[in-house]
Amino acid sequence: MSRFFTDQLSHKTSIFGLRFWAVLGICLGATIVIIIFFISLYFTFKRKNPFHKTTTPPQKPKITDEIPPTRPDPTPPLTDKPENPSTEPGPSPGSGSLTAVKTHGAEDDNSLNGYEKIQIEIGKGHRISYPERGGGGSSYGSGSGDQLAIVSVQPEVSHLGWGHWYTLRELEVATNGFSDENVIGEGGYGIVYSGVLADNTMVAVKNLLNNRGQAEKEFKVEVEAIGRVRHKNLVRLLGYCAEGAQRILVYEYVNNGNLEQWLHGDVGPISPLTWEIRMNIILGTAKGLTYLHEGLEPKVVHRDIKSSNILLNRQWHPKVSDFGLAKLLGSEKSYVTTRVMGTFGYVAPEYASTGMLNERSDVYSFGILIMEIISGRNPVDYSRPPEEVNLVDWLKTMVTNRNAEGVLDPKLPEQPSSRALKRALLVALRCVDPSAQKRPKMGHVIHMLEADDFPFRDEHRGNREIERGRLMEKRYIESGDSSGYESSRANGTCN
């Protein structure tokens, strides 16, 4: 049998005279090549044709034990309150996590890309980062359809050691849904509400209005300027809220209104602000400004010192507030050039004309504030005769004409001594010197207000010395130059 198969395989065929085993090998190899060709053709066709792709149904993500369970919100839901009570048309520490929730309303289709990271520098080596919703729209708007939005779930307490992160819901509950009955102040940049937190702490809640991004600017400035500041004469920033387009600042509550209300409001024929209280307000405000100018690095220039920004507690202790226009000034800089901002009547002349800002601009505003406290008059009052419209010019004229007592607020319960009055007036006049370099620093102002021998050195002087002092005082007031005053103070000749 073996020989038979050998003979058959070795037999020559009619195909080119090839033996039979050679023909079988050729056919087998051709078959393998054809099979490989059809297999490769199949896979090539499948890759190019998308309709042949197999789709797998979406699967729900598995919730593993690695995700910590979220605590239920202890805040009771608001009833009969709109979802967005803010009048706005519409910083988180980096330890917060992101979670997806369902919201109603018109949102950007690209909700994830609608966020950008905002960083706020707090002093040296501290930074706050929080997500900001792009486009300025609020995630609390009303509308049709459900949409998946990303919101930031913030830690209950900031890890920076000074600020508390408040949720919008907390502040809604604290302010009774930002109701009109809780409004205690209103300005161009926001509305201030009184509120009571869950632990019965009274707070002032400032809801910043997003006028062309001004809310974002003021939010950053206030957190930068006073985020870590602790001084008895500066209003303390307790925390903040940044959800969606909302920018809200939470301050300690100062329970006795502001200085403007007590100076110019309807307090009756006799003001409760005695001379001693007024001097304490001046001195406390000076100490707060001294801390901003000389106790911080970088120093803080408030840029909006005025009576409405001086809050008072029940003991009449002053607290400087509203740092929305403040500027930070490093020790290596003598001034910063910026857009002129402030309140008409309080702005220093060199800042108004050149935009060059430094701490001496605050000193000028403080001098105007002293005059306002002493006289009970507004810095600019168009209801008065032309020669009395400008408080500085009128007061200089009164002092030059030796009528210092005539500048006193008629509502004062009792008049101060001539010595105390002239001391306060000369400090005010030095602060409003037209030359910024001749104005005293706030630390020097405190010394002048507290020194018992300022501006007098000797009560028992001859008439010739008294007349010489009066002449120097008059020359200083008329020219607006403090050199005459310095000379008279050095020689003890002011009376």
UniProtKB/TrEMBL annotation:
Catalysed reaction equations from the record: L-seryl-[protein] + ATP = O-phospho-L-seryl-[protein] + ADP + H(+); L-threonyl-[protein] + ATP = O-phospho-L-threonyl-[protein] + ADP + H(+)
Ranges of Pro residues composition bias in the record: 69-79
Native source organism of the sequence: Tagetes erecta (African marigold)
Protein's cellular compartments: Membrane
Residue numbers spanned by region Disordered: 53-111
Source domain of life: Eukaryota
Gene Ontology annotations for the cellular component aspect, listed alphabetically: membrane
Entry EC number(s): 2.7.11.1
Transmembrane segments: 20-43
Assigned keywords, A-Z: ATP-binding, Kinase, Membrane, Nucleotide-binding, Phosphoprotein, Serine/threonine-protein kinase, Transferase, Transmembrane, Transmembrane helix
Protein name listed in UniProt: non-specific serine/threonine protein kinase
Family: Belongs to the protein kinase superfamily.
Domain Protein kinase: start-end pairs: 178-436
Chief location bin: membrane
Gene Ontology MF terms: ATP binding; protein serine/threonine kinase activity
Membrane topology qualifier: Single-pass membrane protein
Annotated CDD domains: STKc_IRAK
Keyword Transcription: no
Binding residues annotated for ATP, in chain numbering: K206
Family annotation (PROSITE patterns): PROTEIN_KINASE_ATP (PS00107), PROTEIN_KINASE_DOM (PS50011), PROTEIN_KINASE_ST (PS00108)
